[in-house]
Amino acid sequence: MQLCKTNKLVIQINYSQLLTDYSIVKFSTTENYIKYGALILDEVGLKLSAKSIVFERGKSFYVLFDKNFISNIDLFKQLEKIEDGDKLSFKILDLNETKKIKQHSITQLVVNSIATPKHERLTYNNLTGKLYLFNTNHLRISKSKDKEQIFKIIGLEFYIDPNSCLQLNVKTFSNLLLNKSMDFSKKKMSAYPKYTFVHSTNTLRRILPSEKVSIDNQYILKQSIKKGTIEKSNIPFLDFSNLKEFKNSKIGILNDILNTINQKLSNYLQLDFKGTNIDHTIRHSNLFDFNNFDEDILLIDGIKDDYSNEYLESIKTELKKIIPNSRIKVSKAEDKYSFNIKLIHNKSFYLKYEHKDVYKPSLYIQHITLEDFKTNSKASLKAIVKELVIKNDINKNQVSIIDWSSFNFENNWIFGIRDKTDFYFLTIEPNGKIEFEKFESDLFNQNEYDELCDIYNENTNIEFIVKDDIGNVNIITRTNNYTIPEYQKISSILEKESREISITKSQVINAVNQVFDKEKASEYETQIISLENWNKDSLLNCFKNRIEKKKVVEKIQKDTGEILKSYFRDKTRYEILDSQLDIHSFKQDNSYYYFVGIKGKGIQQTISRASVIREITVYKNSEYIFDKLLPLMNVDFVKNGDLTVLPFPIKFLREWIKY
Questions:
Q1: Cβ atoms of residues 273 and 7 within 8 Å
Q2: What is the DSSP letter of 645?
Q3: What DSSP state is assigned to residue 354?
Q4: Which tens digit of pLDDT belongs to each residue from 363-417?
Q5: Strands (E), 222-335
Q6: In sequence order, what E strands does 533-589 have?
């Protein structure tokens, strides 16, 4: 990957053309502030026919009006129609005043003005100064004999932050029928803005005080609670399995809205994503071999009923398939010198039946729960084994989960994190020997410690620090930036793949004869000629395996341009998806950064989360040393099956603090 796009926007605004067609009005209140979610914002939009509104905080907000509209109304009189409108003053901004609006705010104001095309299933809502993107496939609907009830409307907030970085945050509007499943201890339900769903346009709009709307069509921006935990709504970051799933993902929705912006707002606004050159890439490689694992494992029955022993026997059978060189047995008691897996009930069970919860955190035992653990889940069983190895390493003060010496480090490395008010450190020697400790003066002098405290206090996004033998310190911070894949290429390929077949049978037969030997080509030719339903699926089903199918697909695409099937998971993944794969680092504007994606080998068609960019700050007069530690994220035992986004010693350190 030569160039990687990030969510940092490159913005160009044609102010003159914007003010030729529109007027921008700055409204200010005589009160101390405009409360977030204030009714007045939505009333201005509804009653004054505003094109869009943007408000962040403070005593002012901006409104975009059609030029002709604002020229033919008396704003003073119009404001009288709005409750508390008399507390607002306004000013129509000229060109110079408009240019003084912060770039991210004026850009958000213009983007908020886009109207939803009638034929589109993606809708845009400018509610209370925010822009929400709704896809009808993300509605949570309960079907009954009488009607369909929409309980949740899940969408994305299209938000340009003060650094001109685009944030796509999942937001959930819940129906008030779910109010008993919500927590209103901090803010009363009556204080939340209420919205109603307009089925004809698939949009939300504010319910004004004068309106009466039944409770089954009232929504508030709030999540419900299930089993004591706030529920989470998820929209996958990227799905390239087919065009429909792509359009349902964040990147697909982003592609749609940017196309709309280009079509409707190009006279006023140009948006692009800033690119950066990648300096260093590390591809995934397996560093933990289960076949080499030969430790004893004890399966402890912490339930002791008729079913629990049978349950552990099934785990034993499945574990033996994964770690064939280990001795595994069911035992009545744990042994601190062995690897112990203990079966217990989950927390809900003990609460429900008012039994004592037997769970106790331990560095010698990995607990699993009868209600939640799947005995046939290979991934879960592997994760359990890895957790046991990590705990054992901590107990023995020696890294063994991978061969530390293979990194060829010649010096000690010190990893530090802050937990509440205390600093904790892990030192790893070149031979893999480890030592844990709270802050000690021989690691940092008191001045350095005080300065580190100040740094952490100033930036809550600092995640950890690293230090080498000679005192170089690097500080790693999570940013609000993330990487953007080649979404336009993905969309184009999937769109072509979704089209009806246009090539003829004779063209396919010609390709088959060039790809295969005479005997095999003759066999396929017979099948193709006999096809009654001529479409891409029926054609591809003619071929025996993926390899042969792909040969034909590539040949036809090369000769005719027809895309029968996309193969993003093959070698092309590094051309189009590399911003979401493996480990990368780069330098930009004298600062250092890195990001970690999913494993490039064997990728799935859905990428659930974006690759967050982290910044490495060189502390005082230190040198940049973090590049040497990038391989420490090329492991999948911290995050189950995925690369870790932080060097794996941080996992060791957090586990040590926990126990």
A1: yes
A2: S
A3: T
A4: 999 999 999 998 888 989 999 999 999 999 999 999 999 999 999 999 999 999 9
A5: 225-226, 229-230, 238-239, 269-277, 280-282, 297-301, 328-331
A6: 583-588
Confirm if 140 and 224 have CB atoms less than 8 A apart.
no
User: 266 burial class (0-12, 13-18, 19+ CB within 10 angstroms)?
Assistant: exposed
The answer to whether 643 and 633 have CB atoms below 8 angstroms apart is yes
* Alpha-carbon distances, residue 66 vs 51, 52, 53, 300, 302 (angstroms): 7, 10, 13, 72, 70
Q: What 3-state class would DSSP assign to 455?
A: helix
Please give the distance of CA 336 from its chain centroid, rounded to a whole number. 39
Residue 243, Cα to own-chain centre: how many angstroms?
20
Q: Which two tokens stand for residue 438?
A: 């709270």
DSSP count for the chain of H helices, then E strands: 19, 30
Of 192, 175, 165, which Cα lies nearest the Cα of 38?
192
Q: How far apart are CA 56 and CA 159, in angstroms?
A: 11
b/e map 573-582, b = 16+ CB within 10 Å: beebbbbbbb
Tokens of 288: 């933990």
621, two tokens: 């007069």
Cα gap 345→301, rounded to integer Å: 11
Q: How many CB atoms neighbour CB 641 within 10 A?
A: 15
CA distance 426 to 415: 5
Residue 232 and residue 494: Cα distance in Å, rounded?
29
Higher pLDDT, 157 or 347: 157
Contact 339, 297 (CB under 8 A): yes
pLDDT for 293-323, tens place per residue?
999 999 999 998 889 999 999 999 999 999 9
The first and second tokens of residue 581, run together, are: 């794969």
The percent of the chain in helix, strand and coil, each rounded to the nearest 5, is: 35, 30, 40
The burial of 121, by beta-carbon neighbours within 10 Å (0-12 exposed, 13-18 middle, 19 or more buried), is given as middle
**227-269 tens-digit pLDDT:** 788 999 999 999 999 999 999 999 999 999 999 999 999 999 9
* Token pair of 568 as six digits: 């993003």
What is the CB neighbour count within 10 angstroms for residue 547?
Answer: 8
What pTM does this model have? 0.91
Three state DSSP letters for 33-69:
CCCCCCHHHHHHHHHCCCCEEECCCCCEEEEEEEHHH
pLDDT digits (tens, 9 = 90+) for 328-362: 999 988 888 889 999 999 988 998 898 999 999 89
Q: Which residues are CB-neighbours of 461 under 8 A, at least 6 positions away?
A: 477, 478, 479
Residue 127: what are its φ and ψ, rounded to 5°?
-110, 125
Nearest CA among 339, 395, 349 for reference residue 373? 349
What is the b/e burial string over 487-520, where b = at least 16 CB atoms within 10 angstroms of the residue's CB?
Answer: beebbebbeebeeeeebeeeebbbbbeebbeeee
Average pLDDT, the chain: 91
Using an 8 Å Cβ cutoff, are 43 and 208 in contact?
Answer: yes
Q: What size, in residues, is the chain?
A: 659
**Closest by alpha carbon to 566, among 486, 507, 496, 487?**
496
Q: What is the DSSP letter of 581?
A: B
Beta strands, E only, 57-109 = 60-66, 88-92
> Residue 658: left (phi > 0), alpha (psi -120 to 50), or beta?
alpha
Question: Cβ–Cβ contacts within 10 Å for residue 166, how many?
Answer: 23
Distance CA 117, CA 238 (A): 24
- E-strand ranges in 370-497 read 413-419, 422-428, 434-438, 462-468, 473-484
- Please write down the HEC assignment for all residues of 498-519: HCCCCCCHHHHHHHHHHHCCHH
